[in-house]
């Protein structure tokens, strides 16, 4: 009997690892609601329109003229209110030649990536103590999954622009870019803490912090 309860508790806690299941057909986000809930309050269902379930413009290339040479165009709950409570979202990612989508994690989502154009080197790293780097080069039509929470990245290894579509298991996956949170926090993490962590000199660390 105890075993059954432990099993059910495990199943329940696993289900809770993703966005919660909806308790109604839909709950279009009411971005102007004053009430604070986990996610967004629902718009009055009788006032909901088809446009609340729609997003336009994903055929357009993102501007990759930046230091990383990539651009993420999100279609999360903020851009598509109808995603509220549905536990799913997507993004278009454009990469200039040799552009990268820098190492980052999604605190709330597993990601499945499809290459539409070009070729991408992708990878993720497992948790301690293995820190195994799982990496592969993907071509047009290839699909790759980045398990929830793990640090992952992509790099365009072709001579032309690359395009990918990512699907994510949260209406609001969140993103933690490793370089930004470590070197660009406000206020800064003390240089000597990072110097110890990265086994580098204070000067090297400050030089990186200044760039963020
Ligand atoms: C792309 O971004 C760069 C840098 O912010 C900017 O100078 C340029 O005008 C943008 N290009 C387009 C087409 O918006």
UniProtKB/TrEMBL annotation:
One example GO MF annotation:
manganese ion binding
Q: Which SMART domains match?
A: Cupin_1
UniProt family annotation: Belongs to the germin family.
Which cell locations does it reside in?
Secreted, Extracellular space, Apoplast
- SS bond list: 27-42
Residues given in the record as oxalate binding sites? 101, 106, 111
Report the residue ranges that make up the Cupin type-1 domain in this protein: 65-206
What InterPro entries does the record tag this protein with?
Cupin_1, Germin, Germin_Mn-BS, RmlC-like_jellyroll, RmlC_Cupin_sf
UniProt superkingdom: Eukaryota
CDD domains (alphabetical)? cupin_OxOx (cd02241)
The leader peptide range reads 1-17
Instruction: Give the matching PANTHER family.
Output: GERMIN-LIKE PROTEIN SUBFAMILY 3 MEMBER 3
Which Pfam family, any one of them, does this sequence belong to? Cupin_1
Q: Which organism is it from?
A: Lactuca saligna
Write out the GO cellular component annotations.
apoplast
Q: Which residues bind Mn(2+)?
A: 104, 106, 111, 152
**Keywords, alphabetical:** Apoplast, Disulfide bond, Manganese, Metal-binding, Secreted, Signal
Instruction: Name the chain's protein.
Output: Germin-like protein
């Amino acid at each position: 009997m105890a075993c059954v309860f432990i099993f059910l508790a495990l199943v329940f806690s696993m289900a809770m690892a993703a966005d919660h299941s909806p308790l109604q057909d839909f709950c279009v986000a009411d971005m102007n609601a004053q009430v604070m809930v986990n996610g967004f309050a629902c718009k009055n269902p009788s006032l909901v329109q088809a446009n609340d379930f729609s997003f336009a413009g994903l055929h357009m290339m993102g501007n990759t003229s930046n230091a990383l040479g990539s651009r993420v165009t999100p279609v999360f709950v903020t851009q598509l209110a109808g995603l509220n409570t549905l536990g799913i979202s997507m993004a278009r990612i454009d990469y200039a030649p040799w552009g990268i989508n820098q190492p980052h994690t999604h605190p709330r989502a597993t990601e499945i990536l499809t290459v539409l154009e070009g070729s991408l080197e992708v990878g993720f790293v497992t948790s301690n103590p293995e820190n195994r780097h799982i990496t592969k080069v993907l071509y047009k039509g290839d699909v790759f999954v980045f398990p929830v929470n793990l640090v992952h990245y992509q790099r365009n290894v072709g001579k032309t622009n690359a395009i990918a579509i990512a699907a994510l298991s949260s209406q609001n996956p969140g993103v933690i870019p490793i370089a930004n949170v470590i070197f660009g926090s406000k206020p800064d993490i003390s240089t000597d803490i990072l110097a110890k962590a990265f086994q580098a000199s204070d000067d090297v660390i400050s030089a990186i912090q200044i760039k963020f």
